[in-house]
Model the fold of this input.
Amino acid sequence: MSQSGVGASVAIRGRLLWFDGDPTLEGAAALRFVEDGVVVVEGGMITAVGEARDLLGRLRPNLPLADHRPHLVMPGFIDPHLHMPQTQVIGSYGAELMEWLAKYTFPEESRYGDPAVADAASRFLLSELLRSGTTTAAVYCTSHPQSVDSFFAAAERLGLRMIAGKVMMDRNAPAALLDTAERGYSETKALIERWHGRGRLSYAITPRFAPTSSEQQLEAARALASDHPGLHIQTHLSENAAEIAYVREAFPWSKDYTEVYEHYDLVRPKALFGHCIHLSDRERAALAEAGASAIFCPTSNLFLGSGLFDRAGLMEAGAQIGIASDIGGGTSYSMLRTAAEGYKVLALLGQPLDALAAFHMLTAGNAAALGLDDRIGRLAPGYEADLTVLDSRATPAQSWRMERVETLAEELFVLMTMGDDRATVATYAAGRRLYEKGGRSLPGKQEMPVSAPTRGPGEGGEAQ
Done:
């Protein structure tokens, strides 16, 4: 059964946490926290947020109430860079980027013209994201249009806000994965017409990266971007020294890697550049001036030995920054694990990442990096009701550690550094509870959400 229509109506009670600003710039004043609060959802949209004592008595009769106390309720996590076809090569041993692509990734991606393969992988990925509290992602499919159809169809059934695109790639990959400049353009155009704006779905123009696209294909990407100025663009930038050397050789007219994308008018707002590790001052300034986003992928960068992301340098330049799992170079679907590894990367550079800044990045910060901060990433009236519920005591080790925690900031730091998918109690998208710990999760064989949210102990037909 399709879940793509109007969202659910429900009241969700718990310890509410979200950000109305960037704590890196504004400190704790950016944090919003309600110890016993309620989020009221009507038709998948948040209509009220506040103290339980103020809102419970005003709820309309028969509105379901999900009581998640004492757990944290916050906006659903947002993952701005990952690869749908890499779920079965995650954790592949011993290779740097270019070798990893040739040895593991490209052979795996060659399977995704098969609808059965693409359908199963799409369902699996969305299930893992929901289990980890992630409600929105920017997703690379393969060069096969089928992979995009499969992913968007699965996301549409669940009513999820997702961004995805067909990889455009016409050189330096196995023949089974190559398109041409013309075919990459025409297939992308057809997919945009078929999927963009349908339900909560958005299309991303997706040239994989400069090494796998000819100048003719980058011209085609420019034409698509010109025809669709509001669309996302996603690609990779300055991840690995060998990659950068190849780009220098393949595009000798370019002063640096970023200028390749600038030349084809692909650096603009809602352009998402994965990695951005080895950037010059000029490149950082160029991203900032254009309003593009640099996406930090810490678990992938550590796993492939690619380098350390200079968050402070990009912030000083004024660039928009996101943080992402980069499955399957990244090694965890959990944005909590992603933030924990991000903390370690930045610590090596003397750039400590505190818990407030990290949770802001996972929610409102990543929403801003995607250009969707007017729709998702906050608990506020008029926002889409995508939420995650987290248990800071999800494991014995966390529970033991929490005995010594005295402040909310300390609790969040423990959750960030020790937490993973086991901390997710429930995940809501457009007000529908699509994951519940200990219950059924979606998608999979079932296409209906778990049982509807119910009132907590002692709650009657109308909340008091």
The longest strand covers residues 31-42. Confidence is low (pLDDT under 50) at residues 441-464. Residues 294 and 321 are 5 Å apart (CA to CA). The chain has 16 helices and 16 strands.
